[in-house]
Amino acid sequence: MVRCGESGGGCFGSRMGMRLARMCHLLVLEKGGLIMILVTGGAGFIGSNFVLDWLAQSDEPVLNLDKLTYAGNLNNLATLKDDARHIFVHGDICDQAKVLELLQLHKPRAIVHFAAESHVDRSILGPGEFINTNINGTFSLLEATRAYWSALPEAEKTAFRFLHVSTDEVYGTLGPDDAPFSETTAFAPNSPYSASKAASDHLVRSYHHTYGLPTVTTNCSNNYGPYHFPEKLIPLIIANAQAGKPLPIYGDGQQVRDWLYVSDHCAAIRRVLEAGRLGETYNVGGWNEMANLEVVHTLCDMLDQQKPKAAGGSYREQITYVKDRPGHDRRYAIDARKLERELGWKPAETFQTGIAKTVQWYLTNQAWVADVQSGTYANWVATNYFNREGA
Ligand code: NAD
Ligand code: TYD
User: Fold this and answer.
1) Rounded CA gap, 275 and 108, in Å?
2) CA-222 nearest atom, ligand 1
3) Mind telling me the catalytic residues?
4) 68 ligand 1 Cβ < 6 A
5) Does 19 map to a domain?
6) Closest ligand relative to 117 C-alpha
């Protein structure tokens, strides 16, 4: 990994940056096209899985732009420490001038945009950062991209792609018998998080229709797997169970989510990047609708098998019903048939296989969990779960 920008912007125009740019230009000459992708938010949960999977399957370098908020973690990318194909830049997508400089220096052929504030509970307690990064940041990134892309030679302009990673939460909530969300379902976001993502989806759409920017958007369901920050349901339950802490269930625990194993999501993004139709959106789902309580029961039962409680009994005894999330969406479900029909993608994992891999990963990576739980994590837990007791 080549690391730039630690002192607030270094890589943009630094000697290291120039050397890398020259290296890439040589490759461009050799291969006859641009040969690097820019990933935003590549130190987060899905972004880091995507970077790792990408470099496991391709030699095309990745320029990784990440602000390293509480959710960004370079330890996720530790295996790329000595890998020159990964260039890390510490920076903010809201910094339009710097992003443009970066694009002009490195000349990526595509941008995969993950960077976002992503946790619904945080958006309820403090929506400002969600508006800033998810809306203003995406706008700023689109503007820098438009300036860069407009000046590309015709062939490179045509081949360029901007892939925007979004969520099924933009569609709102479903009743128990409603059909799953399709790409034509009307947007009806219910949380500041989903509203900010919906706004970013609209901006991306408008840049395609107005300026012809070659965009594609993916709207996926709840991801799970390695490197998932333990503020989200699955990693939180695995961590709390082992620590002997309560397993908090919001409301009645009958809210339904569709669960998508993260490497399946990464494969879908690669496929859409490769062959997605311009201006289109593709839903990505795991065909695994489950109520939260069922997910938690599954995790408890797996942990009972694999790491039995020293004092005996089941982890299920730690389940604690707490006050519900305000505006809590009752059900999400994804119809992912368009992606299968047009691009031949289907998830490889079932919930049973994916969750087994996930539990195994957390049991063997306790140091990663301990590391992310240090620092400001404790403040978040105290803030979010304060006053929730006794639903
Ligand atoms: P995450 O919170 O784990 O990671 C977000 C990353 O973005 C972090 O590395 C963070 O440092 C970086 N970041 C935040 N603000 C930034 C800024 N202003 N400039 C540059 N970098 C910034 O999120 P995730 O779960 O990996 O989600 C990635 C994307 O996928 C998001 O756009 C999210 O909305 C979308 N998504 C996630 C899920 C899910 O289940 N996790 C589901 C659907 C869609
Ligand atoms: P989460 O992982 O935060 O994802 P999202 O809100 O994007 O779906 O939550 C998944 C579900 O689990 C959601 O219905 C809220 C619920 N939940 C709990 O019941 N308890 C918890 O402590 C958390 C974090 C989530």
Assistant:
1) 18
2) 40
3) 168-169, 193
4) yes
5) yes
6) 1
Instruction: Kindly state if the Cβ of 337 falls inside 6 Å of ligand 2.
Output: no
Best mutation site among 118, 168, 196, 257 for ligand 2 pocket (most ligand atoms within 8 Å of CB):
257
* Structural domain span for residue 149: 2-226+260-289+327-350
> Does ligand 2 lie within 6 Å of residue 385's CB atom?
no
Number of domains in the chain: 1
Q: 308 or 379, which is more confident?
A: 308
Asked if the structure places residue 221 within a domain, the reply is yes
Angle at 367 (CA atoms; ends 366, 370), nearest 5 degrees: 85
139 assigned to some structural domain: yes
197-229 per-position pLDDT tens digit: 999 999 999 999 999 999 999 999 999 999 999
Place 4 in a pLDDT band, splitting at 50, 70 and 90. Answer: low
Of 38, 40, 45, the residue with max ligand 1 atoms within 8 A of its CB, to mutate for a pocket test, comes to: 45
133, 330, 258, 225: CA torsion to nearest 10: 60
Count other Cβ atoms within 10 Å, centred on residue 16: 14
Residue nearest to atom 3 of ligand 2 (CA): 232
Say if residue 124's pLDDT is above 70: yes
Q: Is residue 333 part of a domain?
A: yes
Per-residue HEC secondary structure of the chain comes to: CEEECCCCCCCCCCHHHHHHHHHHHHHHHHHCCCCCEEEECCCCHHHHHHHHHHHHHCCCCEEEEECCCCCCCHHHHHHHCCCCCEEEEECCCCCHHHHHHHHHHHCCCEEEECCCCCCHHHHHHCCHHHHHHHHHHHHHHHHHHHHHHHCCCHHHHHHCEEEEEEEHHHHCCCCCCCCCECCCCCCCCCCHHHHHHHHHHHHHHHHHHHHCCCEEEEEECEEECCCCCCCCHHHHHHHHHHHCCCEEEECCCCCEEEEEEHHHHHHHHHHHHHHCCCCCEEEECCCCEEEHHHHHHHHHHHHHHHCCCCCCCCHHHHEEEECCCCCCCCECCECCHHHHHHHCCCCCCCHHHHHHHHHHHHHHCHHHHHHHHCCCHHHHHHHHHCCCCCC
C-beta 120 within 6 A of ligand 2: yes
Residue 117's CATH number:
3.40.50.720
Q: Tell me whether residue 17 is exposed, middle or buried, using C-beta atoms within 10 angstroms of its C-beta: 0 to 12, 13 to 18, 19 or more.
A: buried
